[in-house]
Amino acid sequence: MKYLLTLCFLLMSSFGAFASDSAINGANTAWILTATALVLMMTLPGLALFYGGLVRSKNVLSVLMQCFSIAAVCSILWLVLGYSLAFSQGNALIGDFSKVLLMGVNPSDVSGDIPEPLFMLFQMTFAIITPALIIGGFAERMKFSSVLVFCALWLIFVYAPITHWVWGGGWLAQMGFYDFAGGAVVHITCGVAALVAAIVLGPRRGFPKTPMLPHNMTMTATGAGLLWVGWFGFNGGSALAANGNAAMAMLVTHISASMGAITWAAIEWKKFGKPSALGIVTGMVAGLGSITPASGFVGPGGALIIGLCGGFVCFHATVYIKHTLKIDDSLDVFPVHGVGGILGTLLVGVFSSTELGAFSGYGYGEGNETMLDQLLVQATGVGATIVYTAVVSFILFKVVALMTDGLRVDEEQEIQGLDISQHEETGYSL
């Protein structure tokens, strides 16, 4: 009798475990595991190499150090508080504290049909790359301590709330706002924060008269290649399933990246007589940033136009910011990511239409019946994201300045380079 009861208990336990695990789709889980690794690769080493090659040799190590450190700090903060604020129920503006430290979340718990710990990890990679992108706005002149404190606070007070608005069931999601993989959540927020940083810190010493050319385009091109490949996980993974939506998202991502690269290179070729490696990789990033919010809602024809617009508009935005306004956004984060994100977030309101023939998409968001309806919702989301990010980022910079006794290194340290002054190391021993 004892053995019979034991056998029954084991069978019931096994059935319970099976019943719990049966809610998990193995194919979707495998794909999101892969996509998570791809998105982390975008920061480490993709963005680190891309940005590292763009700065002067005396600052290359500082950029690598910032990317690695931000990845570590933001990962911890995402576990402790960020994920809960972004994706717990809360209210229309912000989540609650129910998932702090993944409290109460078990390996068998699901988000959709993938394990919730995996969904949390996938979203963590987005929370890593977004503040890491901002460093391009203040590269070569900000204290390492200020970088870490700002990015930590920014993740909690800017990234998490806006993520909740868009992906966590917040007020923009309730309006039918379209942002498939981070046009507003990632690219507009990081671009606006970088622009604010460039204005608050002021230009690098010598800007704009002293040439500040990339020191290693081979490194930059390598990083750009890793970003292009990793973006398949960024956009394709945002389908949260191994299905046709993921496949189409990857296809339109590739088309837009290709069109953005060709467009930027063609403009340079006509304007300067020669296309540059810097231009073609920057155009690629512009195409990728522009298609990101639209990637799950538009077809290949729409992606072609979005990539073309991304390359063209972001090129001229870069020239305008640097040469007309003379704002030293060191690595062009706002004109490429910010403007690209704004452009793509608005254009998804057009190319999600099912009535554009070869350029049609897959329909408007819930509650939006016409193109104008969707465009108004998209414009509302863009405007709210810009204003909130700009105001809170500005406040955070002022607070961090008080906490770290100023944001910038001094003149001697800037001339010496951040590699030595901040880390007592050099990127190269030549």
Please tell me about this protein's structure.
The protein is mainly α and 430 residues long. It has one domain: Ammonium transporter AmtB like domains (Ammonium transporter fold, Orthogonal Bundle). The chain has 15 helices and two strands. It has a two-stranded antiparallel ribbon. Strand 1 and strand 2 form a beta hairpin. The radius of gyration is 22 Å and the shape is globular. The termini are far apart.
How many runs of DSSP E, i.e. beta strands?
Answer: 2
How would you state the average pLDDT, rounded? 95
Q: What is the fourth-level CATH superfamily?
A: Ammonium transporter AmtB like domains
Q: Tell me, briefly, the overall form.
A: globular
Largest sheet: 2 strands, antiparallel
Cα radius of gyration in angstroms: 22 Å
How far is it from the N-terminal to the C-terminal residue, by CA? Answer: 79 Å
Structural class, from secondary structure content? Answer: mainly alpha
| DSSP summary: helix tally | 15
CATH topological fold name:
Ammonium transporter fold
For the largest sheet, list the strands in their spatial order. 1-2
What number of structural domains do the residues give? Answer: 1
In CATH terms, what is the architecture?
Orthogonal Bundle
